[in-house]
Design brief:
Elements lengths: L1 H17 L10 H16 L14
């Protein structure tokens, strides 16, 4: 799930950069790309991998 979020953030950053859209200082393409990299790092760390049931094995 987090990988999809990071892909969407990368796409938004690409659109802002390619269309040369003027935004305020908070939502620049570099900041959105860095947020996407942080979300991708969380995905690779295993945070968005889902729930694991730790029951008793027989």
């Amino acid at each position: 799930m987090l990988s999809i979020v990071s892909a969407v953030l990368f796409f938004i950053a690409f659109l802002i950069n390619a269309a040369d859209i003027s935004t305020n200082d908070t939502f620049t393409s570099t900041n959105i790309m860095l947020i996407g990299l942080a979300v991708l790092a969380l995905h690779l760390a295993g945070l968005g991998s889902g729930w694991r049931v730790r029951g008793r094995r027989r």
